[in-house]
Design a protein that fits this description.
Layout: E1 6-10, E2 13-17, H1 23-28, E3 53-56, E4 63-64, E5 75-77, H2 81-96, H3 112-119, E6 143-145, H4 155-163, E7 169-172, E8 179-182, H5 198-202, E9 208-210, H6 214-221, E10 227-232, H7 240-243, H8 253-263, E11 267-270, H9 271-292, E12 298-299, H10 304-313, H11 327-343, E13 350-356, H12 360-365, H13 372-383, E14 398-401, H14 402-411, H15 433-436, H16 443-457, E15 475-482, E16 485-493, H17 495-506, E17 514-518, H18 536-552, H19 562-572, H20 578-584
Parallel strand pairs: 1-5, 10-11, 10-13, 12-17, 13-14, 16-17
Antiparallel strand pairs: 1-2, 3-4, 3-5, 6-9, 7-8, 15-16
Helix pairs in contact: 9-11, 9-16, 11-13
């Protein structure tokens, strides 16, 4: 809805603004950038930090611009001596209780508090440190919370409650004892936390970060007894460049492959290979459910944060989930069975590392049922009358985020921008455009529709792009005519939006056949392991890059992937067959908190 604009003055410059803006946005139109540590558009606006104050003529006190709207004739000063003094004091008070380990901090270089202090010319705080903090919470596989670095901005609380509707953390205590914590201080692992990591991408400091495993991976790369291979998720190619200082949306596929080889990985493979494999399995599962009267709607299962969510909040709907593993876990299972057998590598010495846009992938890799390769080899040995290896292993050994990989590249003094473009290794490296768009909300749905349509219709699609499921709207719907039936589909990203669809299913009001859910806003491009402080423009740039990659690949439909076809012919047999179910499918169960 458009509003009639009003006239205000910012530092002597008259401008017309929308009266529904806050003053931060209004002043930006006049070229005045108001600093803030708690405000984040569409996420948080609670006026807690006191840094965004401005002086308004006629007002007795300074005004916090993140919560104040403009009024006709308002005269604002954004950098008067009174304003600058108040900002310095506010930041000094935050610094007083903040650690001084900036050189070794995981957010060194991207810490908003440090940047703010430097901008204001602060070297130290005049105030004493009076707070004591508990040790960091390391109870989950994906995230670490460090109270000593929390500035009580409230962004994490807001995104967890409003965007994700999870409410795993909240403010507790009063006054000087106020802090952000999980229920009863029992740690994130004993809370409803789904490890999506959205709190970590909006946190201005290092109060919530991914659990960094990059040093473990670097140590393993230096061990000559291990064979190290790596897989890279679709969204990484559109965000890694940004994490290394390139413009948002920079597409760095070939340079990323080159950088990973220089880090020392024996083979560099593409998770998009198993994204195509996922479509073959999930598409077949959907066809079987439609034709044989299975549970509908079928809901995708690629996002581990989403899986944690439905296991926690809607366990009665688990029968709607696809039984397919995520592409990350399918890759691990295939690598430690098919690839290990073909190359003669001992699977116990083979290490699979995945680069993911997601902190929840760390927990997914540690789920006890994700050891299908170990179980397959053990069963094979028993059938052949041989002694099975005693070393238990998971299908995926480490899942590290975009941010962790960026740190590894910087630490190794690799200038990725100057590297030549290189290709993924073969046998587990070929992919189609359908797999590339997995990184965008709606991408899994579009990829599935491309394949399901052609299998059921027996002819080529008249139009490859399914535009109704694209874009960043919270819920997208479409009706697609396929083989004489109208397939109704829905796509949701961000778990508050997913709740809307799930509540309808629970109430028996849903008439959809197929639903895609991604835990993170925007899908994987906005994942919890992506570069910090995302905004709409950055997400749009990443989104656009993945669709560009889709267009330039020679094949754009998963069933056209020659390496996937060869995998079925040489090893798996057929989609949804016995071996596929053993290695590529899983089960889900209610999660008790």
């Amino acid at each position: 809805m458009e509003h009639k604009h009003i006239s205000i003055s910012v530092d002597g410059k008259k401008i017309d603004v929308d009266p529904e803006m806050n003053l931060i946005e209004a002043c930006a139109m006049a070229g005045a950038k108001i600093p803030s540590l708690c405000f984040m558009k569409d996420i948080s606006s609670n006026a807690s930090c006191g840094v965004c104050v401005v002086e308004v003529e006629g007002a007795k006190a300074l005004v916090r611009s993140c919560v104040q709207k403009p009024v006709e004739g308002m005269k604002i000063r954004t950098a008067s001596p009174r304003v600058m003094g108040a900002r310095r004091t506010a930041v000094e008070l935050l610094l007083a209780n903040h650690p001084t380990d900036c050189l070794s901090c995981i957010r060194s270089g991207s810490c908003e508090l440090r940047i703010m202090a430097e901008t204001l010319g602060l070297k130290a705080s005049r105030f004493p440190n009076l707070k004591k903090f508990p040790p960091p919470d390391t109870s989950t596989e994906g995230l670490v919370r460090d109270d000593s670095k929390c500035i009580l901005c409230g962004r994490c609380v807001a995104v967890c409650a409003e965007t994700q509707s999870v409410h795993a953390i909240a403010f507790a205590g009063r006054g000087a004892r106020t802090r952000v914590t999980s229920f009863m201080d029992k740690g994130l692992a004993n809370s409803p936390c789904i490890q999506c990591g959205q709190c970590s991408v909006v946190c201005p400091t290092a109060a919530i970060t991914e659990k960094d495993q990059s040093s473990e991976v670097m140590a393993a790369l230096a061990d000559p007894r291990l064979t190290m291979i790596i897989q890279t998720a679709p969204a990484i190619r559109a965000s890694l460049g940004e994490a290394l200082g390139m413009p948002p949306g920079s597409l760095v596929t070939g340079k990323m492959v080159a950088a990973l080889r220089r880090l020392g990985f024996a083979k560099v493979f593409d998770t998009q290979f198993t994204a195509d494999l996922t479509i073959m399995e999930e598409g077949t599962e959907f066809i079987n459910r439609v034709q044989k009267g299975g549970t509908l709607p079928l809901i995708t299962s690629c996002s581990p944060g989403w899986i944690n969510f439905i296991e926690t909040f809607y366990p009665e709907l688990l029968g709607h989930l696809s039984s397919c593993k995520s592409p990350q876990q399918m890759f691990g299972a295939v690598a430690k069975t098919f690839y290990a057998q073909r190359t003669g590598i001992d699977p116990a010495s083979l290490r699979v590392v995945s680069i993911m846009p997601c902190t929840a992938k760390k927990g997914e890799a540690r789920r006890p049922e994700m050891d299908s390769a170990y179980r397959w080899w053990k069963e094979k040995a028993q059938k052949e009358g041989k002694r099975a290896g005693s070393d238990h292993y998971q299908d995926v050994d480490w899942a590290i985020t975009t941010r962790e990989l960026a740190r590894m590249i910087r630490q190794s003094a690799i200038d990725m921008e100057s590297l030549p473009e290189e290709n993924f290794d073969s046998s587990l490296g070929e992919s189609t455009g359908a797999a590339t768009i997995f990184g965008n909300t709606g991408g899994v749905m579009e990829a599935a529709l491309r394949t399901v349509y052609e299998i059921l219709e027996g002819k080529a699609l008249p139009q490859t792009d399914f535009l109704p499921v694209r874009g960043l709207q919270g819920i997208k719907t479409a009706e697609v005519p396929v083989a004489g039936m109208k397939v109704k589909v829905a796509v949701a990203h961000g778990l508050k939006n997913a709740r809307t669809l799930l509540d309808d299913i629970a109430a028996g009001k849903s008439d959809y056949h197929f639903i895609e859910v991604m835990a993170c806003p925007g899908g994987c491009i906005g994942g919890g392991g992506q570069p910090v402080l995302p905004d709409l423009q950055k997400k749009l740039a990443r989104n656009k890059s993945l669709y560009m990659e889709d267009l330039r690949l020679p094949e754009r439909k998963s069933h056209q992937n020659a390496e996937v076809s060869a995998l079925y012919k040489e090893f798996l047999g057929q989609p949804a067959g016995h071996l596929s179910h053993e290695l590529l499918h899983t089960h889900y169960k209610a999660r008790k908190v």
